[in-house]
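**User:** Once you have settled down, spend some time on the protein underneath, comparing sequence with structure tokens, and judge whether sequence predicts the tokens.
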Amino acid sequence: MTRKKHDTRCILTIFNKTTERRKDSWGQLRDNLFYTSTPTSTHTICCATPLYMYSRRLFITPWGVSLVFFSLLCVVAIFNGVVSLHKDFTLSPDLCSVHPPVPLKVEGSAPLKGQVSFRFSRIYEAKEWSEDGGGSGSGSTMGATATARALLEMLVHRHRITSMLDAPCGSSYWLPPLLSRLRKTVPCFQYHGVDVVDSVVEASKAKYAQDALTTFQRMDLSVPGAGLALSRLHKAGFDLVLCRDALQHLPMLLAVGVLENLAATGAKLVAVGSYLAPRENLNRDISIGDYYLINLLKEPFNLSEAEAVDVLNEESRNKSERKYLLLWTVEYLRGVDFGEMRRRVQKFIDEKSKNTVSLNPHVKTSSPGGSIQYLQRDK
């Protein structure tokens, strides 16, 4: 016995067979709830009019005209966005010939012996920040730096950058994918990393020994004169200085020294990491290697957000941290009165110390670093 084949055609499902069909076109569209392809039955009725007829009726209405107009606007907006991105991520082919790589005079230096070098060397040796990010901590993993890498790539193309100073560079764990993408469009892109830890600098030198455009150097950015030394390194001045995930691990007075040295590098732009807490000021003095949510826009640093070229959100995994990259011109940083900033910082530390002592008279705060020392009670 052969099974009867049903003709498959465009049909419309009617939920209530007794519903009277409206005569206007919009009523027909409301009645025609579903279009499907199933065998005909007593509960279905064949579409007498093809689907394109309903489309024609729709587009001759005011709503249809509005829909077409809105769709065209969307197409134009998308096109303009693609063109804008293309301009941001496309450099002229002669950029490397106009700004060829500058040979850096990186001289060997004796191992650093300051407190900063000792403390951070200990952090890497003991893996105090875990093994994540090559020992630089969870903030330097590939996942944590994905947005930061994308932002740096955007800055490189937007500002036509061909050289970058990474200060400090840490273990440079997330550097390879960044350099790989940048040099596809900027073959002459030059990278120079400096750090206070001898072991990570030597490891990076060995890793990039065959790459003439990628160099590393030992340097303590918190000591006076470090910025001037870096300005002599690149005769034309680096296009960009990156200082990410650094200042929040330093006592506040040393952080001021780093900012002053960044202003003296002779670079064009400086990108500094900062946490922009929405309300309260979380700035506080710490010991070398500790951590706090530094906010460079609040007391006692008081750098200007209005003077920033860009304020770029890193989309931190912890949304409450609001981690950003603040981009300033070196001209602005050179105009900052760092002597006055030091006085504000010292006053800020003293006031915090008084508050601590008032809460516990047997505790004092040492400076610099803000480490807490407990005193023996008088017997």
In short: The CA atoms of residues 80 and 86 lie 10 Å apart. The radius of gyration is 31 Å.
